[in-house]
What we know:
homodimer, Glutaredoxin, Glutathione S-transferase Yfyf (Class Pi), Chain A, domain 2, 2 domains, 4-stranded mixed beta sheet
Amino acid sequence: MLTLYDNLSSGNGYKVRLLLHQLDLRYRRIELDIDKRETRTPAFLAKNPNGRIPTLELENGVHLSESNAILFYLAEATPFLPAARLDRAQVLQWMFFEQYSHEPNIATSRYWLTHGIEITPERKMMLELKKKGGGDALAVMEQHLTKQHYFVASRYTIADIALYAYTHVAEEGGFALAPYPAIRGWLARVAAQPRHIPITRG
Amino acid sequence: MLTLYDNLSSGNGYKVRLLLHQLDLRYRRIELDIDKRETRTPAFLAKNPNGRIPTLELENGVHLSESNAILFYLAEATPFLPAARLDRAQVLQWMFFEQYSHEPNIATSRYWLTHGIEITPERKMMLELKKKGGGDALAVMEQHLTKQHYFVASRYTIADIALYAYTHVAEEGGFALAPYPAIRGWLARVAAQPRHIPITRG
Lengths: 202, 202
């Protein structure tokens, strides 16, 4: 059986939980407490030397990390990943955009503001930078979604899952979604997909 | 013909230039001056709303961005991207690692230190954080390369190209490579690949 090393508050973990549920795949979930550094123990670093969840342990014992790489692996040959070469590259384009331009701004702000992290003067300054960067990322998404119902190939794919994870809880990171009507419409379409589950469900 | 919107100082651009050359694909290269914000003009934002190079214009007029998504697109069905599902996921795992844990630390430090960017007290503080994050990323690479000659499938793939781009110039960002003998051995193996070109070649 698959084993997912996970944390319920993590949007990156949620991406994988959501796709596993939508694919109706059984798996064992192991909750690790990030705040207590349970992802940095020698036992876990042997599974993922980068010390992060989600990490997926496959049936053959191999460990796969990086949420979007796990999504791509699980979605191969399913309706969640298009077959055409250019569509697949565009799915990856949006997933790299998510990890570079979206997550470090919106997810990190949310983590600091919801995990009781001390807001030092340095973090206060970085929150301002992240406010700008996250707003820029949301504006790029809004522009795209004004013209299309989903990110790639006019249908729900792992690009939508990757971007939904932290966008739908962006307000917890201090990002109001009221100015983004196209994003709000897309969030509702994603949440209405068959077998959708909330981020809080383990 | 393919058109690459590019900047010669960019390691992200170099990834694409290197693979295009190794695949012996002809393309037109358009140099944009990042410092003069030539990637933020209305004309360029129409090609990539996220305002970044590299952006590849395909023969059919579609624009593809995010360096590692472009690598994946170009490498499909070539020896630079393995065919096996798990190998492909591991290639992506290392490419997401590169964009999340490596590039924002090492490439951004290099950019600030080589483009005459003013080192304000805020940037000085962030350079310290990036020193720690970049060192952690290099340590993860060193551990992996102590056991393997290349990142995935025991051969040169786009995962190596993605990680080579900013690792081989890490010292320009203030990251000494002397403590990483396995990385230095791998850098030499990558540089010895057929049709290798330096970052400075347009």
